[in-house]
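Contributing new records

If you add data, match the layout below exactly. Sequence lines come first and carry their own label; structure lines follow with theirs. Keep one chain per record. Anything else will be rejected by the validation script.
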Amino acid sequence: MLISFLGGVPAALDAGDLLTVLLFSVSATVLALSIIVITAV
């Protein structure tokens, strides 16, 4: 499910690569949310 969500990323990804992508996604989301909050305030 997660692989198809990432848009055709090869299933050959190991846990390390998947974790890196996940951490990058989470940090980018947090950064975007904080920018929105700062702009709103």
